[in-house]
Amino acid sequence: MESLETPLKFPDGSNYAQPTGILINNEFVPSVDALFFASIDPFTQKPICNVARGKAADIDKAVAAAQTAFPGWKATKPAERGRLLSKLADLIERDVDKLAKIEAIDGGKPVKVAKDADVLAAAACFRYYAGLADKLKGDTIETDPDTVNMTLREPLGVCGLIVPWNFPLLMCGWKLGPALCAGSTAVLKPAELTPLSALFLGKLVVEAGFPKGVVNIVPGYGAEAGSALSGHPDVAKISFTGSTQTGKSILRASADSNLKKTTLELGGNHRASL
Fold it and tell me: Cα dist. 69→21, 93, 127, 245 in Å?
């Protein structure tokens, strides 16, 4: 893992090690093509560091890892899934200042805003789903005396999670939290503009003790990694937050591949008069 970390210095002079590889099976690895892209500081317009550039072959590896991990994660006791999610929330809170600075240099937010609106909110999200993990249940529905009518909630399988640039860590919580709580595994693609906090979260996922392959993180461009993820036949669900145009492309790819379930939050703009 250390070979794919870049030592960085925050503007306040403090240092940290930034993961820059693709997280597959709890290890940060280079991309198959050994390509990378630069994450840019929006304030200085200078590169912060180079990050592995995942493409279709990397998505294939990540999905295969998630698919292999799915039966074991599905069979994991809900209370244990909750314990791991709670541990992840603890680690986010432990590193709250570091994560807030990462969000600030990578996304341009003030540190105070990033701390409250992104990092602590992400920890709270993971903690909520930690508490929900052992409370998911089906229903028994009364129809007539001679009929048993019941529902059973089961995890879907591999979930493809594509997060936007504006709330990268918080959206990881919104998408990873419920997927892991329910017993699904995940391949997460952070936005190419702000990949650093998601990759650092991957480091915390490993530290928390999640089994190999349960969480995989593939940075890259939407037209390469995102397109491959949304059209992958072994992905059971896509959750995407971003533009309406990209959402339409994801919906088409999801339908053309395996009619995968989709959750799309699109076009977060509103009208204003000045």
Answer: 20, 27, 23, 33
